[in-house]
Amino acid sequence: MRTLGVTIGSLMLAVTLSGCAHSEKSNSVGPGSTGPIDIGHSRQQLDDLAKSITADMAYWVSRGIQINMVGPALDGKSVEVGVADPEAAQDVLYAKYGRNNITVVAQGSLSMEPYNGPLPTPTR
Questions:
Q1: pLDDT, tens only, 28-64
Q2: Domain range summary for the chain, segments of one domain joined by +
């Protein structure tokens, strides 16, 4: 039995494998796993990139690209950049930040509307 640790953003997963043949050449989770997965970027590198993209938002808006979300991709391999029109934005974003560093996805704008309804009644 083997336990592997995988960090994705701020989430740490522990995967326990039992009954798996061990191969020294494998580097993936599943039968034949030998260790942690190499995701290509450290958490700090992805955090720094996300901060850089966030700091550049006004630049992108001035060029007609609305970035609505920036955060770690679920696989931990890149920074996910949510935009209203991925097809229009992906080429320039990939050119600026690197195709292997970001994942461009569709994400509509988020708004915080004030709540004007009644307050909930506590129940016991």
A1: 445 555 555 555 678 889 999 999 999 999 999 999 9
A2: 1-38, 43-106
